[in-house]
Amino acid sequence: MEILTLVALLLVGAYILKSRDQRQRIALLGSHLGQYQIEKLMESLTQGYLRCLGEDDPERRQQIWSLLDTTEEKLSSQFDSFAAGFARLPEADTRVSKLPIAIPYAYKLFPSATFDLREALNIHARGIAGVMKNASNRPAKSKAFTMSAELFLMQHTCHWFCKSKTVASARMLARHQTSYEQLLDAVSPETRRAYGTLTGQKV
User: Fold this and answer.
1) Among 128, 140, 155, residue whose Cα is nearest residue 51
2) Secondary structure of 27-67 in the HEC alphabet?
3) Predicted pLDDT of residue 66
4) Bridge-partner residues for 121, per DSSP?
5) Buried-most residue among 103, 141, 151, 190 (CB within 10 A)?
6) In the prediction, which pLDDT does 112 show?
């Protein structure tokens, strides 16, 4: 009976520590994201892509693509600024555990099994900017598809930092019917290679 009580106390303590750690991470990320309109611009883009793909009038469709190009530029610019600001934080606050489940302060207990969110955000910033500039001349639909993947992978990374990889992947599947592996396949090759190297994900 004493063993069961001890186990229960340990579980409760671990839950309290995990919740505290996650609240701190959410507050930290939110304090930086709150300075920008990144989430609003992401929503405008994804909705605009759907509108454009459903538009039958070629002239009207081209007008929408042009408006979306402007939105992409704004989003890329704001994300660059966000990543640059976040990069000024100390490394101790930006480590992300690679473990599949949330363990309280795992990034401190197992530092070798972590990656730096600052580096991940820089990878996302380059990926978003690269697709926006479209140096590889992707057709409009292909560009929209790749940009959506870049944005969703960035969103996955943020959820991973705040919670865990498992929770981030489950949220992505529930909200966008897209698995983590599908996201990695859909982003630009440059993002896939850099992100895979940073996180230890096989690509």
Assistant:
1) 140
2) HHHHHHHCCCCHHHHHHHHHHHHHHHHCCCCHHHHHHHHHH
3) 87
4) none
5) 151
6) 77
Q: Are strands 95-97 and 114-116 parallel, antiparallel or unpaired?
A: antiparallel
- Which residue reads 């959410």 in tokens? 26
The pLDDT of residue 203: 57
String of DSSP letters for the chain: -HHHHHHHHHHHHHHHHHHHHHHHHHHHHHHHHTTS-HHHHHHHHHHHHHHHHT---HHHHHHHHHHHHHHHHHHHHHHHHHHHHHTTS-GGGTEEE-SSS--TTHHHH-GGGEEEHHHHHHHHHHHHHHHHHTTT---HHHHHHHHHHHHHHHHHHHHHHHS-HHHHHHHHHHHHS--HHHHHHHS-HHHHHHHHHHHT---
Which residue in this structure is represented by tokens 């469709």?
61
d(CA 102, CA 197): 22
Tokens of 55: 């538009």
- Identity (one letter) of the amino acid at 182? Q
CB 72 within 8 A of CB 132: yes
Low-confidence ranges of the chain (pLDDT < 50): none
Which amino acid, residue 13?
A: G
How many C-alpha atoms does 84 have within 13 Å on its Cβ side?
Answer: 7
